[in-house]
Amino acid sequence: MLLILISCILQGILFTNVHTVRSYVDGDVRLADAQYRVSAYYNRQYVFGRVEVSFESNWGTVCWNRWSFYESRTVCTEIGYHRPSDWSTAGPNRIIQDDRVILLDNLYCNGEDRLIDCRHNGYNNVRERCTHYDDVWVECYRDFPVHVSDLPIRLISQQAINAYNSQNNTYLNENDVVHAGLIQAKLNGDWYYISGVGWDLVDARISCRQLGYPDVNYIPEYDPEIALSEDQLIQVTMENLDCVSNERELKECYHDGWLVSDYDVTNLASVNCVTKEQFLSSKETLFRLRGGSSYWEGRLEILHELSWGTICSKDFTLTHADIACKSLGLGRAEEMFNTASSGYGRGIGEIWIGDFDCSNPLSADSLLDCDSSDWGYSTCRYDHAWDVGIKCQVPRPERKIRMLRQYISRQYTMPGVKFYYTEIYHENTWSSPCCYSLLPRISTNRLCRELGLGFGLPYLSRCETDPNKSQQSGLSGYILCYKQEYFSENCLSQLTKLDQCYYGYDVIACADRPPSAIQ
To answer: What is the DSSP letter of 396?
Structure first.
């Protein structure tokens, strides 16, 4: 009796060591000896393995006989993948050498959720001709729900990492604009570190331009011991990132896919970017922007013979706009247009130059490094309607003010004018500003431009209740901006939550044309 008890205990220990993840029931399916791969091009993860079914606490294989797409699809959906991409026998190179039994044969599936619910001959009722050469192998894939059309990145400074608060998963310096640190990418609303495997100066330069800086200084070292608390692993994405140098953003570079995996802190992507002040400190000021609501946008002008003049937009491309932004100490160009359609206004005086031809745009620090027309002899030298206007990327904190939804006004219906509710992120929640208490301190034009909603019309902004809110609570206080702040998030603020907004909420008016063009 004692020997039987000891034997049972040992069997239980061995069984526990083998099955540490979960307990299986008869009919469960898995892919054994699984191999994983990811495709950045198709934005998919693939898994390839031998189909096995559990029965009486043991795993057995499935014979290939009558196996088709429909059986493969049932297996893939049962293990959490979308569809099969391939299926085959083990063949001579994948035959298992243990005494595992072949459990099932002659399956027929027609949309069942579980393989065991498909028609088959029963457990251990397999024809003698089935061998492990005939074991079924299936490859399944699933799509990553990542919106690669919008892949924000940000820098987490060493100081912010030092001040990491593991209790609420925030960085104390997250609103600061920093030019050096570890790089994170935002996927599906969450921030993940970018892997440092394969990270080089080309990748770093692309990231700096995307972050709004003109160039990269170097790839800094960081202390991995203080990146996070000792009991946590880093979650990373975009392993083996490989940029060629002509990409505009990191999402365009080759990498192993969007798969997020646990990682230690010893190899993460980091960068030290050249700031605007550093870039312009040793250069003569020959370019400027005029007519925009912020320093990063406007009509592009150039200094020649002590006189400022405009630049012709004929055949002026986004590549030329990238170089122009860099010459201003800024990042990549977000937009390029002629001033007749931009609202920046037509220039006066000379149209100095145009017809640019940049043979090596990646190394150009200025438009003057490219071939161009002679001074004063561009294609559109008599028409300021074709003056170049650009909008550049600049370093910015994480957005704390956003457009909530459009307000439909029956009283004011003007072509090109729209009204919007807004929200402000305060104390870990988004809240709308109460009327007569907050947004009038912020330039309406500044807010419309920052949110990409056009030009602000402060004289049309109004107070309205929000029928979509069950409780009319909101924010009171002030956000006080002067001209030196880059963004509204950098302005001085004092905010308080109110249980009731008695006069409704601030609704801002934005137009696709400047105020002077609104009749």
So the answer is: -
Nearest Cα to Cα of residue 261 among 36, 20, 29: 36
**How far is Cα 42 from Cα 44, in angstroms, rounded to an integer?**
5
pLDDT, tens digit, for every residue of 276-293?
A: 888 888 788 889 998 876
Q: Which H/E stretch holds residue 160? A: helix 158-162
- What number of CA atoms fall less than 13 Å from residue 295's CA on the CB side? 14
Query: Greatest CA span in the chain, whole angstroms?
Result: 107
pLDDT digits (tens, 9 = 90+) for 56-70: 888 999 999 889 999
3-class DSSP state of 7? helix
The DSSP bridge partners found for residue 181 are 271
Output the six-digit token pair for 494: 């004092």
Backbone φ and ψ for 290, nearest 5 degrees, come out as -135, 150
Residue 335: enclosing H or E segment and its boundaries? strand 333-338
**pLDDT higher than threshold 80 for residue 176:** no
CA atoms 60, 64, 66, 68: torsion sign: positive
- Angle formed at CA 418 by CA 454 and CA 289, multiple of 5 degrees: 10
C-alpha to C-alpha distances, 443 to 398, 447, 448, nearest whole angstrom: 19, 6, 9
Pairwise CA distance, residues 430 & 442, whole Å: 18
Instruction: Provide the H-helix boundaries in 281-381.
Output: 318-327, 339-342
The rounded Cα 499 to chain-centroid distance in angstroms is 35
3-state secondary structure 143-159: ECCCCCCCCCEEEECHH
Is the distance from CB of 232 to CB of 15 less than 8 angstroms?
A: no
Contacts of 480 (CB under 8 A, 6+ apart): 441, 491, 492, 493
pTM of the full structure: 0.56
Tally of helices (H runs) and strands (E runs) in the chain: 8, 27
Cα gap 335→317, rounded to integer Å: 10
pLDDT of residue 454: 74
Closest listed residue to residue 146, CA positions, set 255, 58, 225? 255
Amino acid at 173: N
Q: Distances from the Cα of 478 to the Cαs of 201, 413, 436, 438, 488, in angstroms?
A: 43, 30, 10, 5, 11
* Backbone torsions φ then ψ of 16, nearest 5 degrees: -65, -40
* Helix, coil or strand: residue 334: strand
Question: How sure is the predictor about 147, in pLDDT bands with cuts at 50, 70 and 90?
Answer: very low
List the one residue out of 493, 457, 489 whose CA is nearest residue 475: 493
Q: Which of 379, 501, 509, 368 is nearest to 451 (CA)?
A: 509
